[in-house]
Design a protein that fits this description.
With about 375 residues, the protein is mainly β. The chain has a domain at about 75-315 and about 325-330 and about 355-370: 6 Propeller (Neuraminidase), CATH 2.120.10. About 10% of the residues lie in helices and about 45% in strands. A seven-stranded mixed beta sheet has the order 1-2-3-22-21-20-19.
């Protein structure tokens, strides 16, 4: 009897040890610690990247845009770029309510779209993605509608956005759409951003994350309500890779959650980070920039003591995650941390451009010259370690 009891106790102990082994494993790569807890891989990175002396070398290859003259090369308020398999460039110009298409050498090919509320028309087109079969999905904020076109500009279909204010759009290799929406609460300051996955007809499939909307404060003055941007409050950053994995974080700490296509959290990417204080100079610059909007409301703005960790996520064509950091006031600097698909911290880089799209080893950007002329540019790039 005692022998049977001892065997049972030993078997139970082995089972517990095996369970612990599978629920919490650990791996070390240099100063990077990778653990697994309850099915979630946690990648804990140090403050310094694996390649601290790496340099991003980039060179301008193409520039499209003019101040005046041929209207096909004049952009009013460019919002988004996509590039197809022939390296044709599609520019969504929100101000001109159209899509302008150029070949790989920057020659204008054709345009489509116009201002209006009918099928294939835009009032405030803001975000555009290209599907695997090269259809264009265009999100119109003011019409609250998604429009679908063939890449030659032929209108195919559209559907209304049923709830919330749509903001950003992504698409994965399985033709799933990912959209961020602002959902209203009981009061103007009780709003949240909801990240969801939708089918190509606009039906909600899954909700991934919801974040409080901290970057804007609504202040009532008499009968009017004014929206005031709050520069140093943590706000949601998120993006989607081509496999449908969603990367999101709030910025109050340096943690990026990675959710698989079924919305399960499968990974956390962390980096040792020291918050940067908000200085009196930061506050003065903020007040100077927004004084025309703020006027007597400046006293109602409460600043945080420290800045958030990050403001923006981008995925490149190697599925590396680029995290744009908060540094000095606002968004003048482009300092980014770069993580590989496993979550390892590879590089930190300061660049004078803001990458809007990575495609086939190229960086595409929307920029403005010192004179305010909007340009589309393409850069070749490589890393020197």
């Amino acid at each position: 009897m005692r022998s049977r009891k001892n065997r049972f106790t030993l078997s139970l102990a082995v089972m517990v040890m095996v369970a612990l082994l599978f629920s919490c494993s650990k791996k070390q790569i240099g100063n990077i610690q990778i653990t697994k807890e309850n099915g979630v891989t946690i990648v804990s990175n140090p403050a310094q990247p694996l390649y601290p002396n790496a340099k991003l070398v980039y060179e301008e290859e193409l520039s499209i845009g003019e101040e005046e003259g041929d209207s096909n090369y004049v952009f009013y308020r460019p919002a988004n770029i996509v590039v197809d398999s022939e390296e044709h460039i599609y520019l969504l110009d929100s101000g001109n309510n159209r899509v302008q298409v150029f070949d790989a050498a920057g020659k204008f090919l054709y345009s489509f779209g116009k201002k209006g509320q009918g099928p294939g028309e835009f009032m405030m087109a803001y975000s555009m993605v290209l599907s695997g079969d090269e259809k264009l999905y265009i999100l119109d904020l003011q019409n609250r509608r998604m429009s679908v076109f063939q890449k030659n500009g032929k209108y195919l279909q559209g559907f209304d956005i049923k709830e919330g204010s749509p903001q950003f759009l992504f698409i994965d290799e399985n033709e799933n759409l990912f959209m961020g929406k602002i959902l209203r609460g009981k009061t103007p300051n009780d709003q949240k951003i909801s990240i969801g996955k939708y089918d190509i007809n606009g039906n909600l499939l899954l909700t991934f994350k919801e974040f409080a909307m901290n970057s804007i404060k609504f202040i009532r003055s008499g009968k009017s309500v004014t929206a005031i941007p709050i520069m140093f409050n943590p706000s949601a950053a998120w993006t989607v890779d081509n496999r449908g994995n969603v990367y999101s974080g709030l910025g109050d700490q340096y943690v990026v959650d990675v959710q698989s296509a079924d919305s399960m959290v499968v990974k956390q990417i962390k980096r040792n980070w020291q918050p940067i204080p908000v200085t009196s100079e930061d506050k003065n610059k903020y007040n100077e920039r927004f004084k025309s909007q703020l006027s007597s409301m400046i006293k109602e703005i409460e600043f945080r003591n420290t800045k958030p960790a990050f403001s923006r996520f981008t995925i490149d064509d190697q599925n590396n995650l680029w995290v744009k950091l908060y540094t000095e006031f606002g968004f003048e600097e482009n300092r980014c941390d770069v993580f590989d698909p496993e979550g390892k911290y590879l590089y930190q880089v300061e660049i004078s451009i803001r990458p809007d799209l990575f495609k086939n080893g190229k960086i595409y950007t929307i920029e403005r010259t010192e004179e305010g002329i909007a340009m589309v540019k393409r850069y070749g790039y490589h890393w020197e370690k």
